[in-house]
Amino acid sequence: MIDLLATHYNYLMFVALVGLGLYGVTASSNLVKKIIGLNIFQVGIFLFIVTSGYIDGGSPPVVHGHGAETYVSPLPHVLILTAIVVGVSLTAVALALVVRIYEAYGTLDEDTIREVRLND
Amino acid sequence: MTDAIALLVAVPIVFALFPIAFGGRWEHMGWGTAALGALVHLGLSLTVAATVLSGGRFTYAVGGYTPPFGIELVGDGVSAVLVVLTSLVTVAVVAYARRAGPHSNTFYSELLVLTAGISGVFVTGDVFNLYVFIEITGLATYALVATGRGPAAALASLKYLLVGTVGASLYLLGVGYLYVATGTLNMADLASQLSSVGYGSPLVLTGFGLIVVGLAVKAALFPLHTWQPGAYAESPDSVTAYISALVSTAAAYALFRIIYAVFTPAFDAAVPFALDALVILASVSVVVGSVLAVLQSDLKRMLAYSSVAQFGLIVAGFAIANATAVTGGLVHLIGHAVMKAGLFVGVGALAGVAGGRTVDDFAGLAERAPLVSAAFAVLAFALVGVPPAIGFAGKWHIVLGAVEGGRWGVALVAVVSTLLTLAYFARVVERMYFRDAPAPAEESVAAAADGGDAELASDGGSDGDGDASGAASDAGAEPETISMTARIIVVGAAVAAVGVGLVATDLIAVFEPVLEVYF
């Protein structure tokens, strides 16, 4: 158990973040907190893919003329850079929608919005 | 001219910039830009289709980096047909939106970005690139749904965004698992690497599960469909027509590619329960989606739940894993896009005449809008699967494939779903044709019918809209008339649904070389 914690802490962190994020998306009735949960969920996945490229003792994949070393794989990092951009755009769109919803209903609480809509 | 396949993605994105960049100077340039972009896109997709028809499958290395290191685009029978479909739907929706709106420049930019994203999904041969295109598609769709009037559209869009992003992220996680297992992202390379890693490996199995669940969210299979009815019902009619025709289609197509180009039927042979589970998920989706559709009174919601059922059928076809059923799934995928787009434009147009879009509002509509009502009825029966329409060809092959594969359950579900589809369309068509219009409008029905004739007569003139609306207001009916473009689109979709059904064997012949590689 301790061994697992010492060697695979990154994967445990990934599981924790993904679980926490999904809990935030589903359990919170506040729309902004749902978006925060979504971000945590995505960051968990990013962490998983980024750490999968890590090699103990490897050097950054920049060649300085002399080779024969162990390099870490740059591909996962590049992928996640792209995914981060996608995540930021999604957050921006989500927050813009939240602004519109708040202007219309005066609240960010999902349950209250549902009541308001039922009364209409 | 293989560059055309890359331009399919690049051109709409470049065109999308113009309405934003110059919208301040020329207020109404959005429509013209989108129309031009859609036509250029159509030309490019026809070029791709011509290349595929003459020379078969071809690949394109983006930026000159050779696969598997670079990104690969693939043009083959299936992707060529789907990009042509994308172009045609784009042209039709842009034409429809000219009158139906929304009229803002940003709307047209979003539509073009969505076109680029969907084209990308159809042509890419790289699983991470597919994720990026799925997210571009998603982002543009969320923005388009939110262009609907009122806060309900924003709420539906946010719900779609939350559920859709979780789905896409699960797909990304699945891709991560496959990458960890194989060290590659190219679909063709993954196929060979996965078999050497071993299909039973927990990494591969988990990756498959995550990817399938992620794409099932995007394709709106029950019980992951919760975002879809709200998003379809609250968005403007032009947007609903577009996303119902293409967005879920893109996700289902991605699922097809993942199952056959990445995992291949050998995976099914090694781990049968993976696709068995998908067949069960899809079958449940067919039944529940149909039942929920029967229960709806709002027509847009009814059509939305109908999509849940139809996509269940399509995915069931893909998951049965024999050539006949997969062919059926692909034919129904294309047929569904044509028919649903036509039906949604039809509901949008008819709702304007009926003054509402519940099933009861449509009573007696056939007298007031005979042409569009007839086309709507044809599309409805096409989706039910009445021969010779395309709906029949798709369902027939799925049922045939299910029987071939010994999956009697799916064959039964397909037949039951056909009956349920008939149930929810028959009550609409019955009201349109065999009920009188609601009481307050009753006295004006005869006059309105005359108005309808006047509209038809004026169809010949290029600018008949003004006269027709004058005729309608003379008849004392408050409802608006149906625009010329809406008529052409609904009738065109109905003709296409029957026409493609008649040439279904040719369509299947185009798919054949693609499927031969897999089976």
From TrEMBL, chain A:
<feature type="transmembrane region" description="Helical">
    <location>
        <begin position="6"/>
        <end position="23"/>
    </location>
</feature>
<dbReference type="Pfam" id="PF00420">
    <property type="entry name" value="Oxidored_q2"/>
</dbReference>
<keyword id="KW-0472">Membrane</keyword>
<keyword id="KW-0812">Transmembrane</keyword>
<keyword id="KW-1133">Transmembrane helix</keyword>
<protein>
    <submittedName>
        <fullName>Multicomponent Na+:H+ antiporter subunit C</fullName>
    </submittedName>
</protein>
<dbReference type="InterPro" id="IPR050601">
    <property type="entry name" value="CPA3_antiporter_subunitC"/>
</dbReference>
<feature type="transmembrane region" description="Helical">
    <location>
        <begin position="75"/>
        <end position="99"/>
    </location>
</feature>
<feature type="transmembrane region" description="Helical">
    <location>
        <begin position="35"/>
        <end position="55"/>
    </location>
</feature>
<dbReference type="GO" id="GO:0016020">
    <property type="term" value="C:membrane"/>
</dbReference>
<dbReference type="InterPro" id="IPR039428">
    <property type="entry name" value="NUOK/Mnh_C1-like"/>
</dbReference>
Automatic annotation (TrEMBL), chain B:
<feature type="transmembrane region" description="Helical">
    <location>
        <begin position="488"/>
        <end position="511"/>
    </location>
</feature>
<dbReference type="GO" id="GO:0008137">
    <property type="term" value="F:NADH dehydrogenase (ubiquinone) activity"/>
</dbReference>
<feature type="region of interest" description="Disordered">
    <location>
        <begin position="456"/>
        <end position="477"/>
    </location>
</feature>
<dbReference type="InterPro" id="IPR050586">
    <property type="entry name" value="CPA3_Na-H_Antiporter_D"/>
</dbReference>
<feature type="transmembrane region" description="Helical">
    <location>
        <begin position="302"/>
        <end position="321"/>
    </location>
</feature>
<dbReference type="Pfam" id="PF00361">
    <property type="entry name" value="Proton_antipo_M"/>
</dbReference>
<dbReference type="GO" id="GO:0042773">
    <property type="term" value="P:ATP synthesis coupled electron transport"/>
</dbReference>
<feature type="transmembrane region" description="Helical">
    <location>
        <begin position="406"/>
        <end position="426"/>
    </location>
</feature>
<dbReference type="InterPro" id="IPR001750">
    <property type="entry name" value="ND/Mrp_TM"/>
</dbReference>
<feature type="compositionally biased region" description="Low complexity">
    <location>
        <begin position="468"/>
        <end position="477"/>
    </location>
</feature>
<feature type="transmembrane region" description="Helical">
    <location>
        <begin position="371"/>
        <end position="394"/>
    </location>
</feature>
<dbReference type="InterPro" id="IPR003918">
    <property type="entry name" value="NADH_UbQ_OxRdtase"/>
</dbReference>
<feature type="transmembrane region" description="Helical">
    <location>
        <begin position="199"/>
        <end position="221"/>
    </location>
</feature>
<feature type="transmembrane region" description="Helical">
    <location>
        <begin position="269"/>
        <end position="295"/>
    </location>
</feature>
<protein>
    <submittedName>
        <fullName>Multisubunit sodium/proton antiporter, MrpD subunit (TC 2.A.63.1)</fullName>
    </submittedName>
</protein>
<dbReference type="GO" id="GO:0005886">
    <property type="term" value="C:plasma membrane"/>
</dbReference>
<keyword id="KW-1003">Cell membrane</keyword>
<feature type="transmembrane region" description="Helical">
    <location>
        <begin position="6"/>
        <end position="24"/>
    </location>
</feature>
<feature type="transmembrane region" description="Helical">
    <location>
        <begin position="73"/>
        <end position="95"/>
    </location>
</feature>
<feature type="transmembrane region" description="Helical">
    <location>
        <begin position="160"/>
        <end position="179"/>
    </location>
</feature>
<feature type="transmembrane region" description="Helical">
    <location>
        <begin position="130"/>
        <end position="148"/>
    </location>
</feature>
<feature type="transmembrane region" description="Helical">
    <location>
        <begin position="242"/>
        <end position="263"/>
    </location>
</feature>
